[in-house]
Sequence to fold (268 residues):
Amino acid sequence: MIKVFAIGDVVGRAGRKAIEKSIGLIKKRYKPDILLLNGENSAGGFGITKKIFHQFTEEWGFDCITTGNHWHDKKEIIPFIPEAERLLVPGNMENVADETAGLKILTSTTGVKFAVINLIGKAFMHDGNRNPFQAASRLVAKIPENVKVRIVDMHAEASSEKAGMAYFLRSKVSLVYGTHSHVPTADERILSGGTGFVTDLGLTGSYDSIIGMEPKAALKRMLTSKKARLEPAKDNPWLCGITAEIDENSGYCKKIDRVCLKLNDIDV
Ligand SMILES: [Fe+2]
Ligand SMILES: [Fe+2]
Fold:
């Protein structure tokens, strides 16, 4: 059985600190074969840098980093994408020309072959994003038959679109999880056809915040409609995501559980 540990949008320094503080405990307690995270907000709340990507992969042992609508906010990352073997961008996003940038076939540090697909929604997002379901069909068709462990990060605003993707890919992939809302959902389940699903992994970062950001500036924008610079919040870090067990022979998800480590409350 292959154990997957996936965490949701890592926001700023608080998110990275949450990982630094708990990575030892995660490896000891959950013994993951495949470690994943969504890093679209990991650099100052907006985007990801090469340095942070390398910290995730080389220092902490993450096998693969997915992203979302903020993937390109730090411009240095754009030329790095074609050469970054373990960094995905949403294949159907309007500013991603090569759809296959949303698919990687990888081998984990523990020797497990697996596929990861990164897609983005259309509902309440940029109109220019291409149809994620058509993109999913094309990308799934590119996965070699012998790669049974298949994981999809569906980065979307609408819960219905995330569930739609899970039902669309039922029996074709092992796991579909949503990201982007920065709120963990309590609906993890295994669909008939052996596909594990949760609507959103949730935020890894400060929970004294509005979806990871300092409330003051976020509220100013809401109350006055004036621009205010958003900064990642710092306090009360949580690390949120799921663990899943996948049968490497069938690709079926056999178990899926929510994980939320409230780091102020635990001794690590
Ligand atoms: Fe995000
Ligand atoms: Fe996002």
Q: What stands out?
A: The mean pLDDT is 96. The longest strand covers residues 237-246. DSSP finds five helices and twelve strands in the chain.
